[in-house]
Amino acid sequence: MAAKSDINKSQPVGWTFFRQWLKNPLRVAAISPSSKQLARQMMSQLPRASRRVIELGGGTGVFTQALLDHGIAPADLLVLELNEELHQHLVRQFPGARVVCADAGNLSAIAQSQGFTGPDSADAVISGLGLLSMPRQTQQSILQAAFDSLKPEGRFIQFTYGPANPVTREVVDALELTARRASFTWWNVPPATVYVYQRRVSRSMAPRSMR
Ligand SMILES: C[S@@+](CC[C@H](N)C(=O)[O-])C[C@H]1O[C@@H](n2cnc3c(N)ncnc32)[C@H](O)[C@@H]1O
Questions:
Q1: What 3-state DSSP class applies to 159?
Q2: Which of 17, 159, 165, 204 is 20 to 30 A removed from 184 (C-alpha atoms)?
Q3: Does domain 31-200 have CATH number 3.40.50.150?
Q4: CA 25 and chain centroid, separation
């Protein structure tokens, strides 16, 4: 693992990210941080009046900054980042937010310890993880943990560089979710599509207009 001091504070943030990609391309899963246009599209999928948000795979903080600009208070924002150097960068950049160096697979325990439970559960999970390249079982445990930390109507918002839904049909069905393709942008390297996952509404719980 790289030493914490590896990040030179004066380095351009894109270069920091690219260096981490060179070290572990599969895990970092992108050669450059997401664009502001993609960040806007991700934010546009937040439920109205969202108060508490969890971000998975914060990277250099493009979505973290967009969440703060959207009005999420730093104390209501929990960010998980596995890469030690990127984690250090996020801690410096966002001193008021709850930034944890951890695997998204451990989200349940972390969300509990940070008080993202019951009425204080998250309204949304914003994910920058490379879900597409993860084995089915890993996808399922991350999404399961995310939905355990979300309010009943909470949303899991994910982007992908691929042409299709990055979460396998088996995982969507096993967790009884719906998957919706929300938007696409050419203004990202590479171009990206935003997907939104939610719990299925059982017929008896659905408003009359939806039955
Ligand atoms: C595609 S980058 C996205 C970074 C940033 N959200 C953005 O959009 O620019 C994926 C990020 O997820 C982190 N990551 C990968 N696997 C992870 C895991 N299991 N738990 C937490 N973070 C992870 C990587 O270190 C990297 O910073």
A1: strand
A2: 17
A3: yes
A4: 18
What residues flank ligand 1, with Cβ below 6 Å?
27-30, 33-34, 56-60, 62-63, 80-83, 86, 103-105, 128-130
Atom of ligand 1 nearest to the CA of 83: 25
| Strands across the sheet containing 77-81 | 98-101, 77-81, 53-56, 122-127, 150-160, 192-199, 177-185
Which of 201, 203, 183 has the alpha carbon at shortest distance from 193?
Answer: 183
Alpha carbon distances (Å) from 147 to 92, 152, 200: 29, 8, 12
Query: Residue whose CA is closest, atom 11 of ligand 1?
Result: 57
Q: Tell me if 37 sits within 8 A of 154, measured CB to CB.
A: no
Stated pTM of the model: 0.91
Distance CA 49, CA 89 (A): 29
Please choose, from the candidates 112, 109, 92, 110, the residue with its C-alpha nearest in 3D space to the C-alpha of residue 100.
110
Report whether pLDDT(11) > 80: no
pLDDT digits (tens, 9 = 90+) for 126-151: 999 999 999 999 999 999 999 999 99
